[in-house]
Amino acid sequence: MLIKLMLGKVASIKIERKKNIKKKKQTHRGFLFVSCLYKLRSNQTHLLSGFSVLAPAIFSLSVQAATQTTGQMVQFDIKAQRADKALIEYAKQTEQTVVFSYELAKQYDANSVYGFYTQLDALEALLGGTELDAVVDQNGLLSIKLKQINRNDNNMMKLSAVSAAVLPALLAVNSQGVNAAEEVAQEKIEKIAIVGSRVAGRSVEDLPVPVDILSAEALENTGQTEVGRMLQSIAPSFNFSSSAISDGTDALRPATLRGLGPDQTLVLINGKRRHQASIIHINGSVGRGTAGTDMNAIPASAIKRIEVLRDGAAAQYGSDAIAGVINIVLKDGSEGGKAAINYGQYSEGDGETINLDFNKGFALGDDGYLNTTINYRDRAPTNRAGLHGSCQFYGCTELSDGTLLAGDPRELTADRDTFRIGDADSQQFGLTINTGYELGDGELYGFITYSTRENESAAFFRHNANAGGNPVLQDNDATIPLGFLPKINTTIDDISYNFGYKTEFDNDASLDLSYTYGENSIDYTTSDTINASYANFLRYDQGLSAADIRTTIPREAYAYGMELSLQTINIDFTQNFDDYSLAMGAEIRTDEYRILEGNEYAYRDYDTLNGVSIYSGLSGGVGSEDASGGSQGFGGSSPASSVDESRDVISFYVDAEAYVIEDVILSGALRYDNYKGFGDTVNFKLAGNWSITDDISLRGALSSGFRAPSMQQLYFNNVSTQFVVDTNGNLVAEEVGTFRNDSTLAQSLGIPKLKEEKSQNRSLGIVYNVTDNINVTVDYYSIDIDDRIVISDRLGKGLSTSLDAALNSAGAGVGQFFLNGADTETRGVDFVATWNTEGLGGTLDFTLAANFTKTDVVSLFSPAGSSLETVKVEDIFSAEDISIIEEWQPEDRINLSALYQRDDWTVNLSLNRFGEYTVEDGGRQTYGAEILTDVKVNYFVTEDLSVNIGANNLFDVYPDKNEIGNSRSGTIVDASGNTVISSSGVFDYSRRSAPFGFNGAYYYVGAEYRF
Known about the structure:
The protein has 1011 residues and is mostly beta strands. It is 11% helix and 45% strand.
């Protein structure tokens, strides 16, 4: 459920009067983490319900109308800190209105409150041991006072004496005291807001761009254990597609926003730029040719909330922020914590998952905190492969009706369950530390994130009758007689750390200086494999017998590794003036990328030299003479393909925001970036919000943006085996070379260096507060991207003489290149509606969120002046390449969720609709829309211990069965005509794109203890 962070129509400060309030802004660098906070300052004496209260600085925290919820359990996460800050957190987390003296409250230290409490108990615990007390008058105004205040006045009651049954009645009384609070509010107000603006002082409704705030509770209620799946469940504009037998993509899925590429969304941690994953998706999957961020490297239990800015923001945050920005905010509690365990499996009995979480906050004296999280997740593989219907052994004969007559008797008893198609086997350990300490006039802060993940996925099965991958030896049988299924083992290590210091000055200015380092590495090891050419080497060069070859040939090899790191230094200055706010800053960044060579056995072709077979004519007609080089399933990378490159970036920005006229906010940003390699770029953003009435606002933005070529797109190169559909519809193996643009081959073709993508973003939206409890937002967006970086089709010989010569010299059958080769247009609409009400003896929160998006490739072009210019553009970019961009992700996503809370029970029900999508893979198939049902029930056994049970995809929904791009299909009969096997192929479901996977229903149970 989305948190509705809005200016509610509350008692103390009514929106109806806001036109009389002079608006003052306070600037804040990066993402703004507090919402809808009013800071009232006054040096006048204020009469509150008959009491004269000196209020040199009064805060009124106005989030949403207080309703009849004060007696219900609320989850709190408030660290021990200064009382004024603690009360701000209390107001946000309870959606209550609180009035208090800033100068008074800041003199005291509040206690931590962590866990489930009623609002009244939480406030009493928060202020325990201080001289502060909470009172509520007959008009329902909640205030913080000194305990010495006379309690005999009939208009004032101690909050702890007010029961949940009495308080609603008080809140319903006339608002004379409330109006008095308004008069104080009219003196000076500062609002602190959230995302999409560098200026503190904006509620989400005030912002000119749409923002989703996803709480830790909302993430947990999905029942998912991976952050990527959690986001997909509650943010319809976010897609986290699955694929199978796609090498590293099986272990690190592409995450996208608004149907664009994984590399067109910027990810931040605590407002700091996050490094990308080192992998680049080069096989046929969503995001082919791109490199995104590993969304699952951060344990979900370490996350306080996730903020999703759904608008272009390159002028504010730099490269990649074309589709939007995702900011992950880490937990910062100084006390309390939790330990949790979750176990589940799929309805097919596989995919068993155990997830263990431990989170604990520690106080660093009176002025700091250190919050740490440890997570361990063990997920067993799933398998939804069909049966192997083609002949695995030599000697089959095709009959007139197309069936195959078995020849080798082993064919009759061969194992037909030879493939593994589904989720990879995975084990992950994660550690996160987030800390802050008040030092001098500011705060010293930092974080550390670390994760290591072991994955094992499968490649294509190599059967007996596979001369290239399983060569025949001198005894006229294959090296591995019954065939083998190569496994791709990946180790993904991810680490980042940040430290910085932010200080605020007396003149409403602040300065933030920080350093961030991040690195992601992936190592590939291929197991249960062979280097087929090495079998011939052992036979002809070493003179080994067939039996000795089978016992001697290595079955495992380290293929290669990749590392990508990012270092960032940021300095940000903000200054507030009476009528506007200004922010400016600079960023220095260094990107580094390395490809580490594999073992010789993983990449070498032992029976071929300079394209000529070494052992030609030596077999005597029995067995193989020339087999495939490199480890089968996932080949290695040679020293010639090793990479060690770096790139420096320097950026400057300026950002301003002001009320140009009453109820109209205008903001502007300008950013300059200089990249080593392609030069500089300047981008802008103009945005505005117009409060037409107290309940209706219009918002819109116009911006330019860019995305610099990723380090992987600039420097990745290798030769790999890819299985593609040929012109006859058969799936065949090809040795495909991916060549960097500064390689000898690319230079001989005249392929230019990559330059940045350029974008133009336009958005227009409306915010409508239908009632106090119903909020609706609708936003239209338009994203045009020029010079989009795409990877070409697999270009083979015969297209041009210069290309033929280049491929021959490189020893590759086909080649693919990264090119600025497409212009695209994306149009879409986001819709979010929330309704908070009461019913069935508890509270009900409904959220309806939807995304409708369509991307079109409007222009394709080849590099001018290059040898590829003579090749037809449709040969350079195939129909499949275009389909990946336009059609492989659903054009619509709709989520309807309901959260019901009553006493110790919480029930979350969610319906997720995944719209139609089309895959082109040798043929075309449109997969129908599906609705998945998720449910989770949580019960508090004690105040601290809870248990839960739930299901994701409760009704076991699968995507449509696959009809294209299949493999190993066929019908085999024996000599008597009896059917041995009949199968449509091993890919029952599309291995290219599956928005919600194809595993079926997942059931789980869990327990959590809070302390």
